[in-house]
């Protein structure tokens, strides 16, 4: 039998199904600044029609509720990637223990979302002839196997491989052709790869925490599922998750993610600039950024003085004041740099060719006052701040922009979209064949 490169993904999918049968699963967002964990209780009676009903604006009402939540300060994570295994393990264990204590139940299966790993997007296409004139499950597997694998190089793992569009006898735009009559079936797929080392590190950390890994999701994907409303996912929109160490970028259309990328800059870099510019410690810089920060200076800000406190022993240095205008002068250039880099990624993806030009900002760093106005000038498009969808049982403290990833991960844990490894593929189609990288492929599809 030929080697199946997606055996680990299939194994994780089986773990998720086992957790669904047990009725309890945890979702963990391993971020640079914080680690958030929620425990989900499967409750089909909530939507009245079983799992999968009612996905949309009130997605949290469909089939599950949060029974435990825990957040702790992240440690050992830089740029969304693990730099110290023992420290990260302690932080993950702490967040899981807090969530399990609140839920008063033990969790054996965990889904994780990550923002690092240098995600790369590929567009794939394949076509087959239908044997019996009616599309069946095996035909979906065959057409996905017919997609030519890109040569993404050694040291990379496939994180997502999703069919996003089907065409049956040149009728395009089909989301699920099963049961329909036709002769020729074509499929467009979106593939996301990340560094193998990051996936292995996540697996090792969860093994040490005595839980089974039930899936890994890109935070760009999770944030988009959570922060974009149903119309935006359908018509086309970009979701920008501004985290502490990274800024994740995703583009959705027809309710599928068609592009994912990551900028290795975030709110932590703004805090670092404040710390260096004002010569204060990192914790004080974070507090000042949160309380007094902004990007739009006015004449009032010259007279709005901020007291700086310290414990260096030098009285003059420890008791200083700076104007809010000076603070904004430090923050704005870095935030502009992050947004300009995000815009460059969107331009490279062909975002301007989509029918809708909506950009949604979410994540903890999106809380800076005036950020949406600055972003609208840089992107040149409609910009809004996106909060995660309402989820039954989620504490108020965990319902802000900073928790978009973990809320989106909860939706994907309980209502996953079809991926390559959900179908039994013919193994003789797994040989990797060279394929030119194409991120503008969707320009011709819609």
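Sequence proposed for the structure above (446 residues):
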């Amino acid at each position: 039998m030929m080697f199946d490169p997606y055996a680990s993904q299939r194994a994780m999918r089986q773990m998720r199904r086992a957790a669904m049968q047990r009725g309890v699963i945890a979702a963990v967002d391993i971020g640079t600044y914080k680690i958030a964990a929620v425990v989900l209780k499967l409750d089909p009676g909530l939507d009245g029609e079983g799992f999968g009903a009612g996905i949309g604006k009130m997605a949290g009402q469909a089939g599950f509720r949060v029974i435990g939540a825990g957040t702790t300060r992240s440690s050992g994570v830089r740029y969304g990637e693990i730099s110290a295994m023992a420290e990260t393990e302690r932080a993950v264990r702490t967040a899981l223990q807090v969530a399990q204590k609140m839920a008063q139940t033990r969790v054996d299966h965990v889904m994780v979302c990550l923002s690092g790993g240098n995600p790369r997007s590929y567009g794939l296409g394949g076509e087959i002839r239908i044997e019996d004139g009616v599309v069946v499950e095996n035909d979906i597997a065959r057409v996905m196997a017919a997609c030519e694998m890109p040569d993404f190089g050694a040291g990379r793992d496939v994180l997502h491989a999703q069919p996003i569009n089907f065409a049956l006898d040149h009728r395009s735009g089909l989301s699920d052709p099963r049961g329909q009559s036709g002769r020729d079936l074509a499929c467009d797929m979106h593939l996301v790869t990340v560094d193998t080392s990051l996936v292995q590190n996540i697996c090792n950390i969860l093994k040490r925490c005595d839980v089974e890994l039930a899936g890994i999701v890109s935070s760009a994907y999770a944030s988009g599922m959570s922060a974009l409303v149903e119309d935006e996912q359908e018509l086309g929109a970009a979701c920008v998750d501004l985290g502490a160490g990274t800024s994740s970028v995703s583009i959705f259309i027809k309710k599928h993610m068609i592009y994912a990328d990551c900028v290795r800059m975030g709110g932590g870099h703004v805090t670092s600039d404040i710390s260096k510019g004002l010569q204060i410690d990192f914790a004080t810089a974070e507090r000042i950024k949160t309380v007094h920060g902004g990007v739009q200076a006015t004449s009032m800000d010259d007279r709005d003085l901020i007291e700086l406190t310290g414990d260096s022993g030098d009285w003059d240095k420890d008791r200083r004041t700076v104007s809010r205008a000076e603070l904004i002068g430090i923050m704005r250039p870095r935030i502009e740099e992050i947004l300009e880099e995000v815009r460059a990624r969107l331009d490279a993806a062909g975002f301007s060719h989509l029918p809708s030009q909506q950009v949604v900002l979410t994540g903890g760093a999106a809380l800076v006052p005036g950020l949406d106005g600055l972003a609208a000038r840089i992107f040149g498009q409609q910009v809004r701040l996106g909060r995660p969808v309402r989820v039954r049982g989620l504490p108020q403290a965990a319902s802000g922009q900073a928790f978009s990833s973990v809320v989106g991960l909860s939706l994907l844990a309980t209502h996953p979209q079809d991926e390559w490894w959900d179908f039994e593929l013919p193994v003789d189609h797994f040989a990797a064949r060279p394929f030119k990288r194409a991120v503008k492929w969707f320009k011709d599809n819609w």
